[in-house]
Design a protein that fits this description.
The complex is a heteropentamer of chains A (600), B (322), C (327), D (322) and E (310).
Chain A (H helix, E strand, L loop, with lengths): L1 H28 L8 H15 L8 E3 L9 H4 L4 E6 L14 H10 L4 E3 L5 E3 L2 E5 L5 E6 L13 H12 L17 H6 L11 E5 L2 E5 L7 H5 L6 H4 L9 H4 L11 E7 L3 E6 L17 E6 L5 H7 L4 E2 L6 H10 L2 E7 L2 E7 L4 H4 L1 H9 L3 H9 L3 E3 L24 H10 L3 E2 L5 E3 L2 E2 L1 E7 L3 H17 L2 E7 L1 H9 L5 E7 L7 H4 L4 H7 L4 H12 L3 H18 L3 E13 L2 E2 L11 H4 L4 E2 L3
Helix pairs in contact in A: 2-11, 13-15, 14-16, 20-21
Chain B lengths: L3 E16 L4 E17 L3 E5 L6 H8 L7 E6 L2 E2 L5 H7 L3 E4 L13 H11 L8 H11 L16 H13 L5 E5 L7 H18 L2 E6 L2 H7 L2 E6 L2 E7 H6 L4 H9 L39 H5 L5 E2 L5 E2 L6
Parallel strand pairs in B: 3-8, 3-9, 6-7, 7-8
Antiparallel strand pairs in B: 1-2, 1-4, 4-5, 9-10, 10-12, 11-12
Helix pairs in contact in B: 3-4, 3-5, 4-5
Chain E lengths: L13 H4 L7 H11 L1 H18 L36 H37 L1 H16 L2 H12 L9 H12 L2 H15 L2 H8 L4 H37 L11 H7 L3 H6 L1 H29 L6
Helix pairs in contact in E: 2-13, 3-4, 3-13, 4-5, 4-7, 4-8, 4-10, 4-11, 4-13, 5-8, 6-7, 8-10, 10-11, 10-13, 11-13
The chains are: A alpha+beta (600), B alpha/beta (322), C alpha/beta (327), D mainly alpha (322), E mainly alpha (310).
Chain lengths: 600, 322, 327, 322, 310
């Protein structure tokens, strides 16, 4: 018996040591390249200090590898194949029905649209050129005469019409909402479930290569709405009957488009294999015939995506989290380029404006000042995200002039003073009261979420110090959304991804989707400015309107602005041609055809 | 004759056999199939038989520990199986039972004192204050000691446990006790002690016993009357001396002859029965014993023999008896 | 006794190591079994009779140990045999029948398989020969329809038939000795009579020695040539069956015979041996029966009695039989 | 036997209906729905569009009606279309379930082999040092959370030593055919299999040990020794066969586990199994998929129960189902 | 092939009976347990874990949940024996506080499992008939539905009930309990069924005892051993389950820590490689706690079920 006792303890001890040992050893093994690369050593050695020193400037943009020759052998051996790691696509590879960003990457490989978004976020011609009538209501598209699908058939106006009709189908259950484009006759078409109406009045085929679309009202976003992807009717719509989309869904995993690649094989949750489209119809920059024959999208996870690059199993990882640890690792490996760009979106704390407490702008400002957002953001990103004071991304042309913006740096006293002004006086129990009512706020947080993990402890501490009874509850995302829909919350952390256009209708207009459903914030001035911005087609004039809007929102804080973070693509240095070709609006798939593999 | 304490008439206890798609009852194990007897106060009736004869089921059905299928059991004129649950519970102390297995008949996690006393409290026959006294009295009466009150069953030997079982029944001051093979699990030297104790208690307390056993030598010692059971029916029922001296049923004769007698000088010509006891689920037609009976004839295969009085209350169910 | 003993127990001591302490289950047992003889070992629970038999088979539990003594079987000291030699003995030269026919047969194997096993193992029969022989054996032990029964599972048979199968297994390799450990205790009287009858018949046919362990004096009287009475892990009396029954010399044997009700005697009151069967834990150093003995003398509580032999070879371990102990 | 199976199947219908109701309630009553989960934070999507989608998916109908529609279709064999994958639920399940199956099946085999071995030896050498070491190892193996054990193994064997791949099911970009493909998959399976086996081995080993210890004490094992059989014959033919009987239930109950996927392990090792898919479906409120799959597993569990009893009847001649 | 001298079953003997001490089955089980050095060691380890978690924080120089982001990820030092975490909190203190939660979750969840499982098993086994059918069918149904979906949705449903967020931890315990009682109820039921076959239960009927007495004085004490054993093992299971829930983001809410939550927040390769102080301590804490509990459970099984012993 005694012996076994001894063994129990020694085993535990050995185990503990073994675990500890592994931890230490891996410091070396995980950076096997360090000794071949002098430069890479420094970040590794100093990372402790660096990590703790707040960064003034983030190492933005495209950073080249320091030791391009260190590409792992496994990658070197793949001479005509690029492997791109990302989260798994679901296999819904038709533009009508896809729902994840990863499915969308697949779509951008295979399909082309009437127009596309340029590097700066503007919509430019792709399959077609267009002209807008003087009243701003009729858009006439001229399809490129050479355009053809990967099976060799030409792209026609009929294909375009068909592509619209699926969106407008009464049984269409995809995510896109074509009704916002306000095409003439579209609502009637959609409302008719019996299939009597087979044409949309506002969509007119003029000739084989020309199609005109008429909308009811002038809107700055109409072009964006109308420049949809074009799908071959002879493939998807062979027996198309209005109301029956099942045959189309059956082709979800077998897309056919006019894009530079064709999908060769899809293994769910594992990989999507592409081949260069042999019939690709053009070869002028930036749309060129693919230079590398094979591209594979491989499903990877956040836990191991960097390691996969390291072993050479992937050449490119979409969406590596931006934090100091990852940057250090990437730099240490030496053979990786990274493209780190500001995210086109931001994180914020939603406020429920149905709660009278939060209707007071002073309280809202106090909540801004009284929260150490810098620390929370720092803890979450290791200093690699920017605290923001306006609800707009810096990458957009709509970003306001920074002069005159209020800077809500953490200031406990100011927050306290604002609360005092708002009538919330400190009670004896350490909490503030107004008219006998306690200052209580309830935070719903989705989980798992690394921001909440960092934010909640800090908010709890900060707000307690301000005399706010702050309670937080973490729950599944859906439960949080549900509570927010029901208005059973005061604060909630959320993040938003923005489109190419700076219009913030959904978030701040009193009729905006998110606002109406969750914040219930209503300010006539905001509504007016947003409406005005949408009616204006001239960008410079719109910029002015938005400048005013965002300055106003900066002061009003209808939601608590948190941070704007970075996105990062990490690229093996054996791939050339990505530099300068990726922007927040312009993802890697745009550049892919032009990319070449550096051979060893 | 004394007053009748227990009257069993046409008692049947069947256990259904279910089979088929809907678990329909496709047959019955006829554990007890139409038996009747009368037990006068103060006498001891033994029910003797081999395994599968239904003797244990008889005991349990009389106490309504098993549901009756047909017939009636009257205890002091009251039909036990017609009583409501609470009425039955009130009657229970009057009819007690001692079980066969001294190991499983006591709750291993209960002090024997508690086990003996709990029914007293439950029936309001003792108060919390005097329960201990009464239990200790019962312990002493059963040949144990008062200090055993706080012991657990595992500290006792088999014989002592059986004494605890007797004390548990005794303490309620019953009039009638069913003793289900009370000594068959005990060593010979202990068996005698328990049998003597039972005889003594019967005399002291004027008890009436229904004694269930397979051991004829024990039965002969303790009984006034004996009923021999075979496959759910009584084949012979008589006073003890009459039965042992003049067994009329071939089965009784075989039983008596098969019992080993500890006398090596005695060289008997034994009747050795052929084959096994048939299953009570599917008893033979006609006389149930005909499959093993050395004297069986065609008639036995067809006709069920009824219990007949051969004189002096000696009942036997055999076509050829007498 | 001219014949040489087939089995000889010499001062056997077997102990069990339990939580409660060391149990001296058997301490100093010596007796003999001659070829073809039936020896009944009789005693109550805890007397060590089964442990004696299992010591011979070396089938004791892991916590048991034979601490002293010899068991000579057919000229070999069983306790010194190597495991594989011991295996040759079991089933082959010594057959064994247990008390519970319900549990002693493997429920998932047909009885045929179970009979065939030792035949194949020890007598090198082919499967087919073994099966043929198994059917013969089943017939031999008096089970009809042997061809069907050979493929039956134990649960399909009655208790008596199972015990017959156990006998068939024990006899299958024509052993020199059969140990039957309470073979009829679990059976009904009428079946018991059948089995005893069968055992007697087979024994005389095959001329095999039988070590019959029982607590039932009736069975002893019917079967035994020679009786060994055990109490508290020791032999207290042994002798020829007639001697022991006619003239029991140990107070315990005497008490046992008197305490058992006998059919036809109709005693008014049974004789009782007071007290309990002793626990094999903490047995006293003096006579184990002294605490219950009606004739107890001071010496009985001082020293364990020697064994005294009378002229007929009737042995007893009791101070009453020491020279001049009783007037 | 056939009748027995049919009866059991019929009897299981109420259970399945009950399960379907609970499954339906559990998932539909969970806060949120597919539309909120998918588009709740899509600031571009209008409330009208969301309501339209709810209408199309039938999510705004009253619960009883939704249940009736769902069950009605299932009875017709139509499990509906997954919202996430936009294809029939059965297709989605079929796509992923086999990946999970090969993982779980391998684990099952390994786990049973190891547990049998460990259990047998522990039973033979009860309370020896070996037994205790095995016990300790088993406890250690089962005492870490699955995600932690998985990550630890991943770090040690895939990141540090690079013996095994970093997850996934096959190597990307190197098309393997035939045997090479199988080898590639096996190589990828190693770590998840080790993780799952370590986690599950504990319970089974203990069961095996207990069962063997129980059996090894039985009279028939002693009989087998008394017949002079070799030790391994006694252990494997006589003891093990009987020890396995109570484990049959365990085995049959593990069958649904073959198809249900190991959610956490699959996630960590990026294994394209059904577990990951279900987790996603739960979080995304893909009702047809998650309810259909859960019902599928429930039915499998119930079938597993029936299978357990049937297998028991096959393996144990004492149990005969009629 | 155990052969016992028969009389061992009844160790009672006159001389022994006169000794004064009451040898209840509990006491003898306890004696057997004391002899199991393995289990005793585990017990001491477990006590240590309790003390560490519940008393330890009083000796810590750091205040509860003190955040200092700029001190994040400090390696172990004299100041912080096990370093600091992402928010600069002392890992030792976190470990203690997490221990409170994890141990509490284990105990409370087990309490609920035992409560439901025993009640259902007892009622079903004792009354039989349609009560049994309904209860056991319900258990079958619950058993048939996979655990994790149930947990996730139960958690979500219950979080809708305006539960005070600080007490959500109890919700987790409750949910773990509510979905894991079926095994125990089956166990209890089968035990009750076999107890009902024992003659002493027949005796309770013959003595005319009430159902209440039959259940509480006779049946319950006899199922307590299995309840204790499976309860003990349940504690270990619940601790592990909670940590898995934390991994899926369904466990306790930060800043409340649990060992599982600490582990899962260090679930990336970088923390694994560079900051072992974040995951080794909670990992080892879970490991030795769960192993200890399992060893104790195993020891209890042996002690309470003498059949398993020699």
């Amino acid at each position: 018996m005694k012996k076994s006792l001894y063994i129990l303890f020694s085993l535990l001890l050995v185990l503990t040591l073994a675990l500890a040992g592994c931890g230490q050893k891996s410091d070396n093994t995980s950076q096997p390249q360090t000794d071949t690369n002098n430069q890479a050593q420094s970040p590794n050695d100093n990372n402790q200090e660096e990590a703790n020193a707040p960064e003034d400037t983030a190492p933005e943009g495209y950073v080249r590898a320091t030791n391009p020759d260190a590409v792992p052998a496994a990658a070197k051996a793949r001479t005509d194949t690029i492997i791109i790691g990302m989260h798994e696509p679901k296999g819904v590879f038709t533009p009508w029905f896809y729902s994840t960003a990863y499915d969308n990457y697949v779509l951008s490989m295979v399909f082309e649209a009437l127009g596309r978004v340029d590097k700066d976020g503007t919509t430019i011609p792709d399959l077609a050129t267009w002209e807008i009538s003087d009243d701003g209501k009729t858009y006439t598209f001229h399809i490129d005469p050479n355009a053809k699908f990967s099976d060799g058939t030409p792209v026609t106006a009929e294909d375009v019409e068909f592509s619209y009709l699926v969106y407008l189908d009464p049984n269409y259950d995809g995510r896109a909402d074509m009704s916002v484009a306000q095409i003439v006759g579209a609502d009637e078409y959609t409302a008719d479930k019996e299939g009597k109406i087979t044409k949309v009045d506002g969509i007119k085929i003029i000739d084989e290569k020309t199609i005109a679309v008429t909308v009811k009202d002038v809107n700055a976003l109409t072009l964006e709405y109308l420049t949809i992807a074009v799908l071959p009717k002879h493939y998807y719509g062979k027996d198309f009957k209005k109301g029956d989309l099942e045959p189309i869904k059956k082709l979800n995993e077998k897309p056919l488009g006019s894009g530079p690649y064709v999908l060769k094989k899809f293994v769910p949750a594992q990989e999507v294999v592409f081949e260069a489209n042999p019939n690709y119809w053009r070869d002028t920059s930036p749309r060129v015939k693919p230079k590398v024959q094979n591209v594979i999208f491989k499903a990877t996870t956040d836990e191991t995506n960097l390691q996969l690059l390291q072993t050479g199993e992937t050449d490119f990882e979409e969406g590596i989290s931006v934090n100091r640890d990852n940057l250090d690792q990437i730099d240490a490996m030496g053979f990786l380029d990274r493209s780190m760009l500001l995210n086109n979106g931001y994180g914020y704390i939603a406020l429920n404006h149905q709660n009278p407490i939060l209707q007071d702008v002073k309280v809202r400002q106090a909540l801004m000042y009284g929260l150490d957002r810098e620390s929370a953001v720092y803890a979450y990103s290791q200093g690699l995200a920017n605290v923001i004071d306006v609800p707009m991304t810096k990458v957009s042309w709509g970003y306001p002039d920074e002069a005159g913006l209020i800077n809500y740096n953490y200031d406990h006293d100011k927050a306290a003073q604002l609360l005092d002004e708002a009538g919330w006086k400190m009670g004896d129990d350490g909490y503030r009261y107004k008219d006998g009512q306690k200052l209580k706020l309830y935070f719903t947080a989705s989980s798992p979420n690394p921001v909440n993990d960092a934010l909640l402890p800090i908010a709890k501490e900060n707000y307690k110090a301000l005399g706010i009874e702050f309670t937080a509850e973490q729950m599944e995302f859906n439960a949080m959304i549900d509570k927010m829909e029901k208005g059973e919350y005061d604060m909630a952390f959320l993040a938003v991804g923005l489109g190419t256009d700076p219009d913030p209708y959904g978030l701040f207009h009193s009729n905006g989707g998110t606002n109406k459903e969750f914040f219930r914030y209503s300010d006539p001035k905001v509504d007016e400015l947003i409406d005005k911005g949408l009616k204006e087609l001239d960008r410079d004039k719109r910029k002015e309107i938005y400048n005013e809007l965002f300055h106003y929102l900066n002061e009003q804080v209808p939601i608590l602005y948190m941070y704007q973070r970075y996105n990062m693509n990490v690229i093996s240095s054996r791939l050339e041609g990505f530099e300068g070709e990726i922007t927040p609006f312009y993802d890697f798939t745009n550049a892919l055809p032009g990319v070449t593999i550096r051979q060893f | 004759m004394n007053e009748t304490l227990l009257e069993v008439s046409h008692l049947k206890t069947y256990f259904p056999i279910r089979a088929g798609l809907f678990r329909r009852v496709v047959g019955h194990v006829k554990a007890v199939d139409d038996i009747s007897f009368v037990l006068p106060k103060g006498r001891t009736l033994s029910v003797v038989g081999e395994s599968g004869s239904g003797k244990t089921t008889v005991g349990r059905t009389i106490l309504r520990l098993t549901d009756i299928t047909d017939g009636e059991v009257k205890f002091k004129g009251v039909n036990i199986h017609k009583l409501k649950k609470h009425e039955l519970r009130k009657l229970r102390p009057k009819m007690q039972m001692v079980f066969q297995d001294p190991y499983s008949s006591l709750n291993p996690r209960m002090k024997v004192g508690t086990a003996i006393g709990e029914a007293l409290l439950e029936h309001g026959l003792a108060t919390k204050q005097d329960v201990r006294e009464k239990v200790e009295g019962a312990l002493v009466k059963s040949g144990l000691e008062a200090v055993h009150y706080d012991r657990y069953p595992h500290e006792f030997s088999g014989g002592q446990r059986q004494r605890v079982g007797i004390a548990r029944a005794l303490v309620l001051n019953p009039e009638f006790m069913i003793l289900d093979e009370p000594v068959s699990a005990l060593d010979v030297s202990i068996q005698a002690q328990i049998l003597n104790l039972l005889v003594d208690l019967r005399e002291q307390m004027g008890l009436t016993y229904l004694f269930i056993s397979h051991d004829l030598s024990v039965v002969e010692y303790i009984s006034d009357d004996v009923a021999v059971m075979y496959l759910g029916t009584i084949v012979e029922h008589a006073g003890r001396d009459e039965l042992f001296d003049h067994p009329l049923h071939p089965y009784t004769q075989a039983l008596l002859s098969a019992a080993p007698i500890p006398d090596p000088t005695l060289k008997r010509e034994r009747i050795i029965l052929k084959g096994d006891i048939p299953s009570p689920a599917n008893p033979p037609r006609g006389c149930r014993f005909h499959t093993r009976c050395p004297y069986a004839e065609a008639r036995c295969r067809e006709e069920v023999p009824q219990l007949r009085d051969m004189g002096g209350g000696h009942l036997v169910a055999c076509h050829f008896a007498g | 006794m001219s014949q040489k003993a087939l089995v000889e127990f010499k001062d056997l001591h077997t102990e069990f190591y339990t939580e409660a302490g060391v149990v001296k289950a058997v301490s100093g047992v010596s007796f003999q079994i001659r070829p073809g003889e039936t020896v009944c070992v009789v005693g109550e629970s805890g007397s060590g009779k089964s442990v004696t038999a299992l010591s011979l088979m070396r089938l004791l539990a892991n916590n048991a140990k034979i601490v002293k003594g010899e068991i000579i079987f057919d000229g070999r000291d069983v306790l010194k045999l190597k495991p594989h030699e011991m295996r040759r003995l079991r089933g082959n030269e010594i057959g064994m029948i247990f008390q519970e026919p319900m549990t002693s047969l493997n429920p998932v194997l047909t009885v045929g398989e179970q009979i065939m096993e030792p035949i194949i193992e020890h007598r090198m029969f082919s499967k087919r020969e073994a099966r043929k022989y198994a059917i013969e054996l089943i017939e031999m032990v008096g089970i009809p329809r042997a061809h069907e029964i050979v493929d039956a599972y134990p649960h399909e048979l009655s208790g008596g038939m199972r015990q017959r199968i156990m006998i068939a297994i024990a006899l299958s390799c024509e052993p020199k000795l059969i140990i039957a450990d309470e073979p009829t205790t679990a059976l009904d009287v009428t079946i018991q009579a059948q089995i005893l009858d069968l055992l007697r018949k087979l024994k005389s046919e095959k001329n095999v020695a039988l070590m019959l362990i029982t607590h039932d004096l009736g069975v002893v009287a019917e079967m035994a040539d020679y009786v060994v009475v055990m109490y508290g892990g020791r032999v207290v009396e042994e002798g020829k069956v007639m001697e022991v029954f006619k003239n029991p010399r140990h107070p315990y044997t005497e008490g046992l015979l008197k305490a058992k009700p006998i059919i036809g005697e109709r005693k008014e009151r049974l004789y009782t041996i007071p007290g309990q069967v002793p626990s094999p834990l903490n047995l006293p150093l003096y006579c184990h029966f002294a605490d219950r003995c009606p004739y107890v003398m001071p010496v009985c509580k001082e020293q364990y009695p020697d064994t005294f032999i009378d002229a007929d070879g009737h042995k007893v371990a009791c101070w009453l039989h020491a020279e001049g102990a009783r007037a | 036997m056939t009748q027995y199976i049919i009866r059991r199947l019929i009897e299981s219908i109420p259970t399945i209906i009950g399960a379907s109701i609970i499954i339906f309630l559990v998932f539909t009553m969970a806060p949120g729905d597919f539309i909120s989960a998918q588009f709740g934070m899509d600031s571009k999507m209008t409330q009208e569009k969301k309501e339209e989608l709810r209408e199309l998916y039938g999510l705004n109908k009253p619960l009883p009606e939704r249940y009736a529609i769902w069950m009605g279709e299932i009875v017709k064999g139509n499990f509906g279309e997954s919202y996430l994958y936009k294809k029939p639920v059965t297709d989605v399940i079929n796509t992923f379930v086999w990946n999970s199956f090969i993982l779980s099946a391998t684990v099952l085999v390994l786990q049973w082999m190891a547990a049998a071995l460990v259990g047998i030896v522990a039973a033979i050498k009860q309370y020896t040092l070996y037994d205790q070491l095995v016990t300790l190892f088993v406890f250690l193996a089962m005492s870490l959370p699955s995600f932690f054990l998985g990550l630890l193994l991943l770090k040690l064997f895939a990141v540090d030593y690079r013996i095994f791949p970093l997850g996934g099911m096959s190597s990307t970009g190197i098309p393997h055919e035939g045997w090479a493909y199988i080898k590639d998959v096996m190589w990828h399976m190693a770590l998840p299999v080790i993780t799952l086996t370590m986690l599950s081995i504990g319970g089974l080993t203990r069961y095996f040990r207990t069962s063997m210890l129980e059996v090894i004490r039985q009279d028939y094992v002693r009989t087998a020794y008394a017949k002079g059989l070799k030790d391994h014959v006694v252990i494997f033919k006589h003891a093990l066969r009987n020890a396995l009987l109570p484990l049959i239930t365990l085995f049959a109950l593990e069958l649904p586990g073959l198809f249900s996927g190991a959610i956490i392990t699959e996630r960590i090792f990026n294994w394209p199994g059904i577990g990951k898919v279900t987790l996603d479906a739960i979080f995304q409120r893909d009702y047809p998929l998650v309810m259909g799959f859960t019902l599928f597993i429930s039915v499998l569990t119930i079938l597993g129960n029936i299978l357990a009893d049937v297998l028991y009847g096959v393996a144990d001649p004492r149990v005969r189902h009629r | 092939m155990t052969v016992q001298p028969e009389a061992l079953k009844s160790s009672g003997q006159n001389s022994k009976m006169r000794s004064k001490k009451v040898d209840s089955p509990w006491r003898s089980a306890f004696r057997r347990l004391l002899k199991n050095k393995f289990a005793i060691t585990a017990f001491i380890v477990l006590i240590f874990m309790f003390l560490f978690s519940f008393v330890g924080p009083y000796f810590s120089p750091y205040k509860d949940a003190k955040i200092s982001v700029r001190d994040q990820y400090k390696p172990p030092s004299a100041e912080h024996w096990l370093g600091t975490d992402q928010l600069g909190r002392d890992v030792v203190l976190r470990l203690m506080e997490a221990g409170q939660i994890s141990l509490l979750v284990g105990l409370a969840a087990t309490g609920i499992i035992v409560l439901i499982g025993v009640t259902v098993g007892l009622l079903a086994g004792f009354y039989g008939g349609w009560i049994d059918t309904i209860l056991m069918r319900f258990a079958d149904i619950m058993y048939a539905i996979p655990t994790l979906p149930l947990l996730i949705t139960f958690g979500a449903i219950l979080s809708d009930l305006k539960f005070p967020p600080d007490q959500r931890i109890y919700l987790i315990m409750f949910v773990i309990g509510v979905i894991s009682w079926m095994g125990l109820s089956r166990l209890v039921r089968s035990q009750i069924l076999s107890l009902k076959e024992q003659e002493f239960m027949l005796a309770t009927e013959a003595l005319g005892l009430s159902d209440r007495r039959k259940i509480f004085s006779h049946l319950l004490p006899n199922v307590v051993p299995i309840i204790i054993v499976s309860g003990t093992l349940g504690v270990a299971g619940a601790i592990l389950l909670e940590s898995s829930l934390s991994f899926l983001g369904l466990g306790v809410i930060p800043p409340t820590p649990s060992w599982g939550q600490m582990l899962s927040s260090a679930n990336n390769m970088i923390d694994f490689a560079k900051r072992p102080w974040l995951w080794i301590p909670p990992g080892v804490a879970i490991l030795i706690t769960v192993v200890s509990i399992n060893v104790i459970g195993d020891g209890l099984r042996d002690a309470l079920d003498p059949k398993m012993k020699r």
